[in-house]
Amino acid sequence: MKCKLCGGNESRVIYKGLIRNGGLGKYTDTDVSVYQCKNCGVIWHENLLEDIEDYYKSEAYRESLEGGSEAERFYMLHDKETLDKLSYTGTSLYRGKVVADIGCGCGAFLDFLSGVAKEIIAVEPSAAYRKVMTDKGYHTYPYAGEAIKEWKGNIDVLTSFDVIEHVDSPRNFMHEVYELLGGGGRAVIGTPTDAPVMRELLGEIYEKKLLFSTQHLWIFSERNLRMLAEEEGFSKIEIQYFQRYGIGNLLGWLRDKRPGADLTGSLVSQTMDGVWKGQCSDRGLADYIVLYVEK
Ligand SMILES: [Zn+2]
Description:
about 300 residues, alpha/beta, seven-stranded mixed beta sheet, four-stranded antiparallel beta sheet, 11 strands, globular, binds zinc ion
């Protein structure tokens, strides 16, 4: 199988079986082959979603993933991610800047930036969420390609978290980021890794129940993210790892062999959690990877 990302001729099947289809506990009806490229290292499977653009516009997507599509529910689930996102970007990037977030949902993260940013560009396929964000005064677009028509070369800071793994063409995604940014503009793009520690300890259980999903068409790593950024002509390319899930999550998985069974209580102290996250991040074994680029 030819690599769908770099075109390399050598890839191998690293998994064949049912994979997650939407939220936890929902699986595909048939086996799915997951491939890894020997050249660029990217992991992918064929797109099983019939019309991916329609799908992400739909209420069905949010229903399938989160059990609801209302704004309040979105905030309840996603406000808590803001501190992580600010830890990836820092806070000094945004003041007085034209800021765009691609795949922003209902704008939970943007709400925390809107007090300092000059303009907020919110790119989100869901029409229901766009309406809420338009009412907040954000410039909203369903896709980056639409935003480019009005903001090409005028974005100072672009963020996009948990999006690039969903798109049909990551190369096109990077190109759109490049087009949107002005000279000297910066982008911060975050995506889950293949969570190497969890895979080593849990193998196929973890792969089936969480890691591989119909909605994530790709799993990236440092090598292929750098490749995409270099090909697009970005400069000052940097990569950082962040461990999102705590030690209680790992221990819960080991105990119950399923997600959502986090271990809490006296064993899981803040110190222990901090050491676990720090080790994973420092050694490139973390569950999340962030790409920093400048145009
Ligand atoms: Zn490849």
